[in-house]
Design goal:
alpha/beta; 5 strands; 53% helix; 11% strand
Length: 237
Amino acid sequence: MSRAVASACIEPTQILIVPVMHKLHQGNALYGYSDIYRLVAEFRPDQVGVEIRQEDLDRGDDYLARNYPAEMVHLAKIYESRVFGFDWLGDDLAGKAVPDDWWKKHSRVKQLERSMDAAPQDRTPNDRRLSAQLASLSERQEQIAVTATATTLADGRYDAVTAEYYATLKHLTDGTQYSVISQFYAARDKHLNDNVIHCLHGMKGCRVAIVTGMDHHGPMMKAIEHRRDCVRLRPVF
């Protein structure tokens, strides 16, 4: 923030971005579900953003449990009167409920991911190199996650590995039918960031906690850091 803008910010918007690991919290004694809820509560938020589509927040407990991580559903209930959703699952689902069999039978991205996992990615020496690099990066992500605390997951190391992972995935899939996978994940990051920033326009001067999957943490931090209005990102402790 420039000095001129900073001086004009009598009450900057305080933003805490909490990266979460979804089901991996179950096996991590250093960063469990209770730690997420404590971090958010201790921040004393006026508003809480969760990785659930806004149009899905009122669809019922069973529906939410089928389609979203447990911590997102729990936070949506705790902060029901001050929660907002910012997720995006694709334009083909916009405004519609997610069908029960969507992820197994109808999602094009999930179908391609299953096909890519089953198909050999060794068409050329470069493909073999990129596939090996993807596997190595995935292992590094897991190594960070299994021993992570909230603080270490937000310190930038996981973000850097994840950015490299998705860049490598793009190189591997460019020019193939699997390029849709890379394109979807890039579009999802953009939509999540845009949705959050849109919501923040109406929350000037508030304390806003944003809880997002760890793969989205890096892009979201950058998107909010690049805003030109009065925001202050708070560290995760």
